[in-house]
Structures are given as structure tokens and as C-alpha cells.
Amino acid sequence: MTLRSFLCSVALGARLASFRGYVSVMRALLVSAAVAGVTLFALAAASVSSVTSAHLDREAARAVQLEPDSDESSLRAVDPRLVAERLWNGHRVSRTYVASGSGPTVAPPPGMDRIPAAGEMYVSPALSSLLNGDEVIRKLFGESQIMGTIGEEGLVGPDELRAVVGVEDSQTLTPASGFGGRPEAKSSGDTRVNIVIAIFLVVLIAIPALLLVTISARMSQDSRRRRADSLRLLGASRWRVALLISIEVLMPAVFGTVAGTLAYSVARGRVDHIPFTNTTFYPYDVVPAQGGLLWIPPVVTLLVVLTAVCQTGARHTSTRQTLTASRTRPLWSLPLVVALIGLGAWRFAAEHLPDVLAGLGLWVLVALAAVGLASSGSGITQRIGKALAPKVRSPGTSLGLSMCGHSPGTAARLSGVLAVTLLAIGVSTPFVALLNGGSEARAAQVLGQAKDVVIVTGATRSLPSEKEAARWEGVRQVMPSGLVTTESQGQIPFLRATCEQLSDLSRREVSKCTDAPAWLAVDSETTLIDGAGSVVETRQGELVVPGRRRAIEIPGLSQDLDGVLKLSPGDYSQLPIPPEHRQLVLRVASAHVSEVIAQLTAIDPGGTQSTGEYGYLDPDQAQFPEQVQWVHFGSIACLALGILAIVAATLGDGVPRRRRLLPLIIAGAPRREVFRCHLACTGMPLATMGTIGSIMGWVAYQGVRGLDDRAVAPTSFYLGLVVAGLVVTAFVVLVTAPPLVRPTSSREFIESE
Questions:
Q1: Which of 550, 556, 738 is nearest to 658 (CA)?
Q2: Alpha-carbon dihedral of residues 57, 61, 64, 69, nearest 10 degrees?
Q3: 189, exposed or middle or buried, with CB in 10 Å at 0-12, 13-18, 19+?
Q4: 401: closest CA among 411, 387, 415?
Q5: What is the DSSP letter of 509?
Q6: HEC string of 559-583?
Q7: 286 three-class SS
């Protein structure tokens, strides 16, 4: 090929790529938008490693390096592993508690000019703003005074809620050598959850993204095939035809990659958190790995062009061939049928299987359902179209249903994409509730019915006095407790209380209660320790542990107190209790539980709190809140990419669908009948498969619920998925309708022959 021939081919390809008319403009915009979105997503994914590395480096630089065996140290700290990791009124707050020792001076942590003294603290700018308007967060730090803000060097992101608090030195603090080194390793459970979430997000986002790239490359493939056939008949070589096709696709693809790269560059300097999540970072920490900014955009462009060129080898399909009935493949629906039967059977068989096999079997069935939905869209819509076409009076609707029954179009083939997307969202919702420990709606319902909650708190440093805690809002009673050691039963938890205090704690009159030692029983089925004859040596003399027959049943108590030994506070007030075994029992109004726990944490940061049987329903005790937000983000991204892919594919299939509608248009049918035909052959498959996908999501939810009853999702959510599928259907139908209902021309009719 000579240079002149090459330049002529380039000019011809540019002319073919010119934007003329609604269809060509919309195709070009969709190709550019798809390529831009995929480029932006690829660059963002390539930057995850740099953000993660920057987070780890910042956490390592500020981590407290403990020295448990050191005799003297200039720094002492509360062991970070003992500080409660939970949400506070919906906010994740990172706290470090330190005290100055007697050794040489230690350099302050990054972002601070000195180590805070007792009663002082340094906070991040975001936490400083939150302290002014959140009562729970303010009580979390007691009377500590803010002495300054933490600089960027000591934070992982601008919105991080972090505080370094100075406390009084005590024997319960751990010696430390300073700051910097290896941060505390995450638990294996957190690592496994993160891996599962990462795989789930990759599958949830990457599949529709790759599908979008493929569909974008194949848009207008029918017209390109016809031009390729004409050029080959005129003597053009295969390479010249491929060059023309490449240039035609290259123009919108390059525009899309440039737009995506520019969007990434602009967002890189301004975005400091992942959308729909609280994951924060500094913009300058975002750097694509391995120079991705240089090679990712060209690779995406090349992928789109190569995919488009590979489609030129197929032959053009005429109108008669298009309207010829296609054979159905009933075996494609087999995975969906097997998954539906399997999920129904699994619901009853799961309780007889080991937990590992039950969980693995559930996810295999869900994956099988996804494969079945993706592969059976055409077959299901064909059967529905053939069944309904003879029963409809409207000629346009009847023709549209007949088209679906004999030759499903792109909308029917891609209706499975919408179904799989809704299935994935339907499964992710109970999975999110499971990570949260229960749904927020269920938590609000149960905690609302439980007007009071019993809190058992353990101490490592100090506990508030009974008078101090009694002044806290919502607290009814405080009773100290601990562990006693017996000769035959070992350590037994006990509670020092009078019968009146037990009645006040349980909010009902307690019968068969005396000042003598006795067991507390929350329900009659509790298996109590049979300690008859066991003796506890105390400063007041010997204490005989009661037997099983001397139990006091108190149904109003927390499950955490089931089987606890009750002692009289007057006779055994001098029982020796090690500091790590000291406990308080409080009855708190449910509306004030977060405030009370925050006040307890301010007094004893390393203490532990338990809210009994209601603890797992507290949204603030969610174990994986950030991972839950990532799942939400992935679901939204998956739905957006899926909708864009369906619109692109349906619009790209406009020419074949237009030819199928020509008989109706030439016969003089009004535009409303043409639109009804388009609605039937495009909207019916999407609406049907969207509804089936939502129903399969509900069926899969029942399976997840059988695996763990904390995975709760409201029925209204799955009804909302059905409505969402119908909204997507309406959007696709309206966007792709204009090029189909326009008047026809004699040239178009001749070309269709």
C-alpha cells in the first residue's frame, strides 16, 4: 500500500465516521462514553495499589511500638488491641491513648509537635468539626482538652476521624519505645472478608465493563459489514477494508480514551474518597501502577478497534434471513432450572450439612442461577412471544411479539445481563446485612421494643463509682462484679447485689431471693454449675458455693448474666478482685446506650462492653462497615454499567430492527403501531428477564437467610428491584425509539432487499 493510498483510506475512513443523524450521533456518543468510562475505571483500578501502599506507610509511621518486657520507657500506651473497634453514632473514630514515662524523651508521632499530657488530646480537622455537633463523639473523650490538630503526615486521608489522647500513667499501660515501624496486623478474619469482597467487586464491575467495551466496538457492525462487502466487490484488499473500519472506530474511541484520561486527571487532584463510601485518601497518593497513565488508554483503544475489525469477516444478513425462525436451545435454560430447584431443596437440606459445605453449595447455586439467566434470555422471550402473539389484537404489538418468538433481537439476547445485575444486587443486600450483623431495620425494631438494655463492662484501668454512673442519663443501676476462685470449679463470675437491686435490674419482682449466695438464671433451661460443697476463701472467711437447687430465675436479665453467682454486697464487699476481672453491670435506656458506652470508654479505653443478646443488632457494632460500603458502591457501578451496555447494544442493533419493522411501516401503519412493535420486541424481553432476575434474587435471599438468620432484607426491596427493572426497560425503549419510528424511503426499502 502506497502512502497516497494510505492517506486516501484515512480520509475515507474519517468521512465514514462523520456524525450525521440521530443514530450516528448517539452511537458515537455511546461509544465515546463507554470507552471513557472503562478507561476511567481501569486507571482508578490501577491506582488502588498506590493508595493502599500509602495507607500502610502512614499507619506504620504513626503506629505505637510496644515493648512489654521493658522496665523503663519514656512512653507508655494503652495496647491498641484493647481499644474498642466499633462505630460511634455511625462514625469510625481511630484513637491512640498514650502517657509520658520516666525515660528519655521520645519523638512525637507524625503530624504532632509533642506528645499530649494527661487530659490533653490532638485531633484531626474532621474530628474537630464533628466534636462540636455530635454528643456521643464528644462524650467519647470525656474532659480532654484539644491542644492542636494532627497534620497530614499523621492521617491516612483528609476526612479521617483520629485522635491521640493523653492519659494518666498506671500499671495497666504497656511500655512503648516510640512511634513508627510495623502497624498492627489485621486479623485473619478481616483478611478473608477483604479477599471475598475484592473478588465480588471485580466480578461485579469487571464483567459489565468488558461487556460494554465489546458492545461499543460492535456498534454499527451491520452497516460496517455491508460497506466491507461492497468494498471487497469493488476490489479493495482485506487490509484496506480493515484500515477503513479501524479509522471509523478509532475516532470515537480516541475521543473516549482522551475524555476518560482527562476525567481521571481532574478527579485525581480533587477526589479524596471513594464515592458512596467513607474510605478516604489524599489525592497525591493516587498514582497508577507501572505507568498506567501511559499504557492503559492506548490498550483500551486498541481493544475496541481490534474487536471491531474482527467483526468484518461475518457476512451481511438480509431481511428475509433475519425474519427466518431461529431454533431454540432448551438446554440453555437447564442451569436456571437446576438452580431454582437446587435453591428450593437447599433451604431444607442446609441444616443437615456442615457449615462449609452449606455455604459453598449456596454460592455455587447462585452462580449457576446467574449463568442460567445470562444464557436463557432468548429462549424464555421466544416462548413468551410465540404464546402471546396470537392473542394480541394490536397489529404492532402482535408483530413485535412474533419477532421475539421467531428471531429475538439484541434486547432479548442482552436481557439476561439485566437479570444477572438485579440478581447480584438482590444477593448483595442480605450479604451486606450479614456483614453488618443484622439489618438496620431489624435492629431498630428490636431495640425499640427493648426499652432497656443491660450492659456488662469489663475494666483494665478504672471503673466509675456507683454515684458517678447514676448521674449518667438513662442509667438505672450500677453493681460491681468480678471472678472468684473455687477449689473444684475454678474461676466463677459473680455479681454483688441485694435482692432489691436485682429487682431493679430486671424491672420485675424477684422471688426466692435471700442474702445467701445463689445462682442467677435467665431461663429455666440454663445448665448451672453444680458447685455444691465448693468453698471460696475470702478475707471474710469461707464462702460456700450454692448448688443447683438454689437458683433464682430472673427472665428480665441479659443473657450475659445467665449462670452468674449472686453474692450479698455487704457480707462480701472485700472479695479480692484483680483489676482485669473488675466489671460493672448497668441497665440503660436503649436511646442512651451509645452515650453510656462512650462515657465508659472515656474512663477506661481498654475496657470491654457487652450489650447482651441485643449487641449483634446494634448498627454501631458492625464488624465490617467499610466493606459494606464497598459492596454498595460495586452494586451501583454494576447497575450503571449494565444499563449503558444494554442501551449501547440495543441502539447499535438499530438497522436490523429497522429492517424488521419495514413491512409494518410500508403498509402505512401509524407511528403508534410502530412504537408498540418496538415496545414489544425490545421492552418485553427486558421487563420479563428483569422481573425473573428480581425473583431469583429473592429466592437466593431465602437461601442466604437459611444460612444465617441475621441476613435480613425487606420484601419491599425486591419489589423495588422489579420496579427498577421496569424503569430501565422504559429508559432503553425511549432512547432507542426515535430512529425506528421515522418515515421510510424508497432507497431504504430497496436496500433491504
A1: 738
A2: 90
A3: exposed
A4: 387
A5: P
A6: HHHCCCEEECCCCCCCCCCCHHHCE
A7: coil
pLDDT attached to residue 328: 47
Cell numbers for 671: 407511528
What tens digit of pLDDT does each residue of 140-175 get? 998 899 999 999 999 988 999 999 999 888 777 888
Task: Give the distance from CA 547 to its chain's centroid.
Answer: 50
User: CA neighbours within 13 Å on the CB side: how many for 288?
Assistant: 20
What is d(CA 345, CA 367) in angstroms, rounded to the nearest whole number?
16
- Cβ atoms of 211 and 274 within 8 Å: the answer is no
Cβ-based neighbours of 201, under 8 Å, separated by 6 or more: 630, 631, 633, 634
Contact 585, 561 (CB under 8 A): yes
**Cell output for 323:** 425474519
CA dist., res. 387 & res. 385, Å (int) = 5
User: DSSP assignment, residue 681?
Assistant: I
How far is Cα of residue 378 from the mean position of the Cα atoms in its chain?
A: 31
Distances (CA, A) of 705 to 145, 278, 702, 708, 740: 47, 28, 5, 5, 46
DSSP state letters, 619-652: GGG-S-HHHHHHHHHHHHHHHHHHHHHHHHHHHH
Nearest to 124 by CA among 99, 94, 91, 83: 94
Q: 535-538 and 518-521: which strand pairing?
A: unpaired
13-22, 268-277, 278-287 — which is least confidently predicted? 13-22
| Burial of residue 497 (number of CB atoms within 10 Å: 0-12, 13-18, 19+) | buried
573: cell is: 464487699
Interhelix angle 684-707/355-375, rounded to 10 degrees, is 180
First to last CA, the chain: 35
Separation between Cα atoms, residue 432 and residue 204, nearest integer Å: 15
The DSSP result for 77-118, as a single string, is E--GGGS---EETTEE-EEEEEEE-SSS--PPPTT-SS---T
Q: Residue 161 is placed in which grid cell?
A: 476521624
The dihedral of CA 425, 429, 430, 432: what is its sign? positive
Torsion-angle region of 98 (φ positive above 0: left; ψ -120 to 50: alpha; else: beta): beta
What is the average per-residue pLDDT within 176-189?
67
In whole angstroms, give the CA distance from residue 600 to residue 86: 14
Q: Nine-digit cell at 149? A: 490538630
Mean pLDDT of the chain: 76
Q: Which of 447, 455, 452, 488 shows the shortest CA–CA distance to 561? A: 455
Buried b (16+ CB within 10 A) or exposed e, 199-216: ebbeebbebbbebbbbbb
537/176 Cα distance (integer angstroms): 38
Q: 553 forms bridges with which residues in the sheet?
A: 521
Helix pair angle (377-388, 395-406), 10° resolution: 140
Nearest by Cα to 604 from 621, 586, 582 = 582
Q: Which residues pair with 486 in a beta bridge?
A: 490
Phi-psi map region of 128: left, alpha, beta (phi>0 left; psi -120 to 50 alpha): alpha
Q: Which residues pair with 145 in a beta bridge?
A: 120
Nine-digit cell string for 258: 482522551
Cβ atoms of residues 217 and 652 within 8 Å? no
How much is the pLDDT for 691? Answer: 92
> Within the chain, how many helices (H) and strands (E) appear?
26, 19
**If you compute the radius of gyration of the chain from its CA atoms, what whole number of angstroms results?**
34
Picking from 153-157, 272-276, 520-524, which range would have the lowest pLDDT averaged per residue? 520-524
Cell of 308: 471491531
Residues 6+ apart with CB under 8 A from 595: 135, 136, 139, 472, 473, 474
